[in-house]
Amino acid sequence: MAHSEALLVLENFIAGKFVPCSSYIDSYNPSTGDVYCRVPDSGKEEVEAAVRAAKNAFPIWSSKSPLERSQILNKLADLIEYDLEAFAQAESKDQGKTITFARTVDIPRAVYNFRFFASSILHHTTECTEMASMGCVHYTSRTPVGVAGLISPWNLPLYLLTWKIAPAIACGNTVVAKPSEMTSVTAWMMCKLLEKAGMPHGVVNMVFGTGAKAGEALVCHPDVPLISFTGSTLTAQRITEKSAPHCKKLSLELGGKNPAIIFDDADLSQCIPTTLRSSFANQGEICLCTSRIFVQRGIYSEFVKRFVAETKKWKVGNPSDPTVDVGALISKEHLEKVRSYVKKAKAEGAKILCGEGVDSLALPAGNQKGYFMLPTVIAEIKDESCCMQEEIFGPVTCVVAFDTEEEVVKRANGVKYGLAATVWSSNVGRVHRVARRLQSGLVWTNCWLVRDLNLPFGGMKASGIGREGAKDSYEFFTEVKTITIKH
C-alpha cells in the first residue's frame, strides 16, 4: 500500500508484550475517509496464545488481596488521566466523535471506571445465617471465575472496554479483551501503561480483529468460562449459540429503541435541550439515545417547532473543531445504512422536518470524503414503520403525538427492545406510575444519562441479558459458594 510507512500499525498485547500479527485490517479515519491505521486480523492462534497467558497469570492475580488489586487499578486510572488529551485526540480521530465529547465524556469515564471498581471491590460483604437448633452456621464466599472474555463495541471504545476490564480484574479474574476492529487505538494505548501501573504480565491481554474471527475464537474457547459482550442483538444471538455447549456465563448489553415521553406539563426549557442531547449526542451512536419522541397533543406543535429550530443549530463538521456538535459516523457502510432509514420513512409518507435530504451540509475541504450526516427529525410516521421499530444508531429521531397516558405507555412498549426511556412531567405521581409500567431497564425522568454506577445497568427483552454495576458486575465476575460449619 502506498504511504504505508505513515500508517499507525497496532500489535496485539499478550503476556505483557506487544506481538505482531501475520495479517492486518485497514482502519479508517471517519472524518476524512482515509486509511490511517492497520489493525491485527487475529484468529484462533492469537486468541489461543492470549488465553494461555491469562490462564498462567490467574493463580498469582487471583491470590492478591482486593486492596493490592485496587491500588493497581487506581494507578492505571492516574496514568490514563495524565495522558487524557492524547487519549481524547486518538478516540476522536479513530471513532469520528467530537474532540469535546471525547475530552469530557469518553476518557474521563474510562478513568472513573477504574477508580470506581478499585473502590467498590473493597466494600462488598457476604451473607451469613445461623441455624442454632442444628448447631450450624452458613456463610457465602465469592471467588474469581478465571479467564474472562470481553468484547466491546465501536461507539464508546475505551469507555465501554474499561467498564468491562475494571470489574473483571478487580474481582481477581484475568482477561482476554477484543475491542472493535474499527476503534482499537485507545485500547492499544492503554496497554502501554499496564506495566507502569504494576499490572502483572498476562492479567490483561488484548487481541485485535473482527468478530467473525477473533471474537468467535474467544467465545468458543473452552478455557474462557464467561463472556461479557456489548453490541448488536444479532451478534449476541450467535454468541449465545456458540457458548451454549460450554455453559458459559453471559452478560449481554444490546440495542435499544428508546422512547422519550413528553407530557403537556413538561418544562420545555429543560426538556428540549436535554432531548436534543439524548437524540444526537455522539452522532446518535449510543445505545441509550432517544429515537422515538412521544409528545402529548396539546404541546405537540410548539414542541416540534422549537425542537426543529434547535436541531438546526447543531453544527456538523471536523471532529477536532471544539465548536462542532456532531462529528462523523463510524463508517461509510454505517452512514449509508442510517441514510437508508430516512429514505424509507420518506417513501412511507413520513415528513422529514430537517436534516438529511432537506438541508445542505457544508463541510471543510479536508472532510469532504468523511462520513457526515445532519441531525434529522422525522414526523408523521406510523408506529409500525421500521424507523419506529428498528435501532438506527445514528442522528435520526422520530416525533409523534399521543393523547393519553394509557395509550403512550402501550406504544412506548410496542417494540422488541427495552433498554432505556425518558419521561418528562411535573406530576410526581404520573412519573412514578409511568416509570413502573415501562418495559425498560433504565427510566430517566426529567433528565437523561444521569448514572450512579452502584445501580444496575442493562435492558429487558431484546436489549440484553444480565446487568452491570457495582453489585451486579461483582456477582457476574465471581462464583459464589455456600459453606456450612457444624459446631
Report what the structure shows:
The protein is α/β, with parallel strands linked by helices. The protein is built from 16 helices and 23 strands. It has helices at residues 44-63, 66-82, 84-95, 99-120, 157-170, 185-191, 194-197, 211-220, 233-243, 268-280, 297-311, 332-347, 386-389, 405-412, 428-437, 470-476; strands at residues 8-9, 12-14, 17-19, 24-29, 34-40, 128-131, 136-144, 147-151, 174-178, 204-206, 226-230, 249-253, 258-262, 290-296, 351-354, 376-379, 396-402, 417-418, 420-424, 442-445, 460-461, 464-465, 478-486. A seven-stranded mixed beta sheet has the order 15-16-17-14-13-19-20, with helices on both faces. A six-stranded mixed beta sheet has the order 10-9-8-11-12-22, with helices on both faces. A three-stranded mixed beta sheet has the order 1-5-4, with helices on one face. Strand 6 and strand 7 form a beta hairpin. The radius of gyration is 23 Å and the shape is globular. The model has no long low-confidence stretch (mean pLDDT 97).
